[in-house]
Specification:
Order of helices and strands: EEEEHEHHH
Largest sheet: 5 strands, mixed
Structural class: alpha+beta
Distance between the termini: 106 Å
Oligomer: single chain
Strand content: 15-25%
Helix content: 25-40%
CATH topology of the domain at 3-80: S16 Ribosomal Protein, Chain: A
Number of helices: 4
Number of strands: 5
CATH superfamily of the domain at 3-80: Ribosomal protein S16
Length: 188
């Protein structure tokens, strides 16, 4: 059976209060425990004496017989001077993840592109404002003359125009019934 020193939550909703207990590591968090060895009230100020209360001789006994403290309890015991805890070092703790870095790089590159575009637009605007004042007025070139139809008679079709074929067959209109259809109705 492995024994651990851990917190057992009590108190009401949004008002936590913890018991520091010695319990079987497989027992539920707030379930049956072997012994209560202290209390922890996170709502009190950090320098308050009643924030963490421990029965030091019982804590030392349980540690001596092999009880393992959870991380939070180990921090509390270290602060109380009962058991020294080796501090953990995670240099990447505050560093953003891979995808967050990619998003930040994309955002930075888009911002740089927008800044370059803004500067280019400002330079063009300055050049456009300065250009009419520096250059002399240029006269417009005469427009190209449009082709005229001098020598072509009004009755003649234009080049490329299609003339209606006089010998093309006439299409029957839908309102006149075909001759064969009238005969079929009379017989039927």
């Amino acid at each position: 059976m492995s024994v651990s020193l851990r917190l057992s939550r009590g108190g009401s909703k949004k008002r936590p209060y913890y018991k520091i207990v010695v319990a079987n590591s497989r027992a539920p968090r707030d379930g049956k425990y072997l012994e209560q060895v202290g209390t922890y009230n996170p709502l009190l100020a950090k320098d308050d004496v009643n924030r963490v209360r421990l029965t030091e001789d019982r804590v030392r006994y349980w540690i001596g017989v092999g009880a393992q403290a959870t991380d939070r309890v180990a921090r509390l015991l270290d602060k109380a001077g009962v058991q020294e805890r080796t501090p953990t070092n995670n240099p990447n703790k505050a560093e953003p993840g891979k995808k967050a870095k990619e998003r930040a790089e994309d955002k930075a590159s888009k911002a740089a592109e927008a800044e370059e575009a803004k500067k280019a637009a400002e330079e063009e605007a300055k050049a456009a404002a300065a250009a009419p004042a520096e250059e002399p007025a240029v006269e417009e070139a005469p427009a190209a003359e449009e082709p005229t139809n001098e020598g072509v008679s009004a009755d003649a079709p234009a080049e490329g125009a299609v003339e209606p074929d006089a010998e093309a067959p006439q299409v029957e209109s839908a309102s006149e019934p075909a001759e064969g259809a009238a005969d079929d109705k009379a017989e039927g």
